[in-house]
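Async update (no meeting this week)

Hi team, since we skipped the sync, here's where things stand on the single-chain job. The sequence we agreed to prioritize is pasted below, unchanged from the tracker. I ran it this morning and attached the output directly underneath so nobody has to dig for it. Comments welcome in thread, and please keep replies under the output.
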Amino acid sequence: MLHIDPDDGRVTGTSAGHVPLLCARRDGSHGIRELAGGPVLGVVPETEYGEETFTLDEHSALVLVTDGVVEGPGLTLEAGLERAGTLAGAALHDGLNTEETADRILDAAVAVDHLDDVAVLVIRRT
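Output:
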């Protein structure tokens, strides 16, 4: 779950076992951010989830993906996150919009034998 303040780029979030977030920058670089959190919702009653707050810089993007995008029989989570982050950073550097950035990441996921759902959400701060 994320709350994003569009005025100052402040992002507050928590995770229920989700894949880490990717933060792509216009200079082509990227980072991987694993949010504090806990187990999948509803599995452990009365679980408390920690929150984390960070700032999304101007001209950067948050990229949220499902595990089917970044994991597969021949692709570890770490390698998949690195690949998706590299693609997202390059897309921003190339001036692509959010849809084109998501398509670039999805096209790479399709090229790998993925076994799970595939979804990408790109949120840009301009």
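Quick observations from my side:
The chain has a mean pLDDT of 92.
DSSP finds three helices and seven strands in the chain.
Reply here if anything looks off.
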